């Protein structure tokens, strides 16, 4: 089936500051809704019931947002970023409205699913819009700002969610999306100009279905495995087999598709493959830290749940600062290869230092370690998106950008699941034979234990965290090695430039070195 597209790329005569502002608001919406709901979950369960379905409030959004990301990227390439982004915002707002009005857990989960179906496109298409209006070299600074927005949302989300729950109602967590989303929609509609270009396109329906099946099975396995379903259960094994079968089918279909949803040629592009491999590992390490550091601060350092969000502020400050610096470096030099190498080295050092924390470690020292971790995470996303957009053909900018988002999200999902299993196994082994074995390990419960028992439990708790940070550190070392193989294609100063081939880039780099 063919379709007519009027979604030609936009021209430089845009209201660029307005476009960038609207994109930033859109990214803020997408990022906030990954973290803002967590503080409200106990209150939601208390009001709506459905404790056995609680995890689906988070999983439904994550699953939907992940599986549609590459599809949105391709649709943006085929039909134009403006109309696809507008559709994503409207879907997201519809889901938000359903969540805000939900009177039972099922309705809330349905709303979160619809939110995710829109939210998956917000980040991907919004970042692709930048490629339509700003040349790659100047794009680095903007992507650095967007990376800072993501960092801010990670710390602001739980705080804002907690504040809204305490002062109003959990319904306002979702209602607050409506004015921001409508503002972004209005600015994008007014500022982003599209010049019609009629072309016929073939939709890769089979590829879309198989990719959705693959990603769904992967996300469900990593999100539910070890918690809702046992790792060795028939459900887990079935999800793994389904993911493998769908992936094999997807590769076979994409090799023959006229306009594949995720072109296999991208996986022959050095920049795409290396950048996404590093992004996957950094996503894994980031979500592991974001999950377990607040837990450490609450349980061992004795801070409140609200203050534990502030406790990870050094990591977020490191992310924001390093993301902005990376953007400036890319804009001024037109180079980016050194950035992920330095970032992954900082990440490795910070994670290895976290393996030394104990029950008596100063919060200041923990803050320094987290700062190093944040400095290692910050540049990776902005560098990956900028480098990939510069290195792929213009008609693949959307799917290339989607790849950067997709691999980071999958890395995060795998990280939370794997680190959770490592921590649980370590904690069970450390407390084996003690009076606390098999008991709930909440901070409040631990605080009520006799001093000697509490000391034993806290030592076991901290010891169980060390393997988590060690494995994350080993992953960061692997990212450092992989980043060494990144081939640098100098960032272009012109808009809509088709990148030179890797052979041409190598020849030009050699000539420049000889000339220098």
UniProtKB/TrEMBL annotation:
Topological category with respect to the lipid bilayer: Multi-pass membrane protein
GO molecular function terms attached to this record: transmembrane transporter activity
GO CC annotations on file: plasma membrane
Superkingdom per UniProt: Bacteria
Annotated transmembrane regions: 16-33, 53-72, 84-110, 116-134, 146-165, 171-192, 204-225, 231-253, 273-297, 309-331, 338-358, 364-388, 409-432, 464-486
InterPro entries named among the record's database cross-references: EmrB-like (IPR004638), MFS (IPR011701), MFS_dom (IPR020846), MFS_trans_sf (IPR036259)
Gene3D superfamilies: MFS general substrate transporter like domains (1.20.1250.20), Multidrug resistance protein D (1.20.1720.10)
Entry's localization field: Cell membrane
Residue span(s) of domain Major facilitator superfamily (MFS) profile: 19-491
The entry's keywords: Cell membrane, Membrane, Transmembrane, Transmembrane helix, Transport
The name this protein goes by in its record: EmrB/QacA family drug resistance transporter
Organism of origin: Devosia pacifica
UniProt lineage: Bacteria, Pseudomonadati, Pseudomonadota, Alphaproteobacteria, Hyphomicrobiales
